[in-house]
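Per reviewer request, we include the raw input and output of the structure prediction for the construct analysed in the revised manuscript.
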Amino acid sequence: MFSAELVGFAAGALGMFFGLPQALRVRRLGHGRGVSLISWMLQFGVATAWAAYGLDVQSPSVLLTNVGAGLINASVIMAIMRNNVKSISILTAYASVLSALVLLLPSFFVSVLLISLVFAQSPQIVKSYRNISAGKDSAVSITALSVSSFSILLWFIYAIMVSDSLIIVSTIISFTSMTSIITLELIGKRRRALNTA
């Protein structure tokens, strides 16, 4: 179990920092064009819910790394919303409600909630696809998505080591979403480069 927690901490450490390149890119560019605020709000919810799940199943790696990921996801949201103070209270209320649901609902409903939240990147898939069609520049960080994909693979290994089917299913869905976004962003980047050449 100890070695599984080490894998979980490695996965979580990478996952925590997946939002950092995105936040820095939005701040450097001065805009969040192409970045789905809804996806990042959902990602914040994912981290919050999984942190509560980690508390419930007494997994230090799941709890601590998702708390860190939630804070970094909040920084991306703040960068997109331009540090709107009102967003802090919205994020706090959102985190409180999700945590309470995970800790108080029966395990079947918690599983459904956690699997549903894994589809958090779906709005970004749609937005990335639309950006290709419109030929618009995108502030989406492929570096951040790549780091997240590697983190998800480590969480998959962790899930196998601890035999947690909920995490196995969620990592498969998450990895599929991330690779879809990376593919769409690379296609969009290539098309924009060809159009400007």
